[in-house]
Amino acid sequence: MSLQSVSKTILVLETLLKFPDGRTSVSELSRELGWSRAATHQYVSTLAEAGWLVQNTRRDYQLSPRAAVFGRFAIEYAAVPVEVTRTMEALVEDLNEPISYAVLNGNEATIIERHEPKRPFAIIRAAEPHLDLRTSASGMVLLAFDAHIDESRWEGMEDALETVRQQGYAESHSEWLGDIVDVVAVPVMSAGECLGALSVIAPAGRFDIPTARAALLEARQRLEQELGVGSS
Questions:
Q1: Radius of gyration of the chain, Cα coordinates, nearest whole angstrom
Q2: Which SMART domains does its entry note (predicted)?
Q3: Chain-centre distance of CA 135, in angstroms?
């Protein structure tokens, strides 16, 4: 039997993320939740006492540094859904190139799982797990499909991000770890939330980009059907 108070506490935290910069007043939050101001205040004040929320100089509530630490821990150690892992393994077999899964982590994209093809005599070096949001294909996907994006922080990128949304993918041709590489990335969506970005990467010219793009888009569709969320 579920505890209603726990479910409501989680709902407060999730609703808080819908506001610009993740901060809002009790009155605005209560309207969004459809609760009374008194009930909303009880939950946010309890979260503040527990150290999960803080108030700024305007008395608006926002997530505390403690919540940020928890979020970083969750990104690093939360299990990647088995459906994602299976999809990545299938893509490696199909494309014979490295496949990565990255998530949004503050001001960067972080690769939390990576699968490499088994090539004889291959030299495998540790991949850099941190990607720039503005220049990497995975970063652009995570920004474009982030339901909570603060657009004021990404001024000048509106057209590029809208193009990614319309296409359903992002591509990049740039230097990475000293090599010029081609990358194609697609989002993995769940009920309007971007769970992460699947990408394929290889030295420039080694794979056919349209073929890789089609494989990733098809994999995304299958994966979201497996997850039972569709391609929202």
A1: 20
A2: HTH_ICLR
A3: 16
Q: Specify the amino acid at residue 125.
A: R
Quickly list H helices, the chain.
Answer: 4-16, 26-33, 37-49, 65-77, 82-95, 137-144, 158-167, 209-227
Per-residue pLDDT for the chain (232 aa), expressed as one digit of tens each? 567 888 899 889 888 877 877 789 999 999 999 999 999 999 999 999 988 899 988 889 988 877 777 766 666 666 688 899 999 999 999 999 999 999 987 778 888 899 999 865 444 444 567 888 888 999 999 999 988 777 777 888 999 999 999 999 999 988 776 788 999 999 999 878 888 999 999 998 888 999 999 999 999 999 999 887 544 4
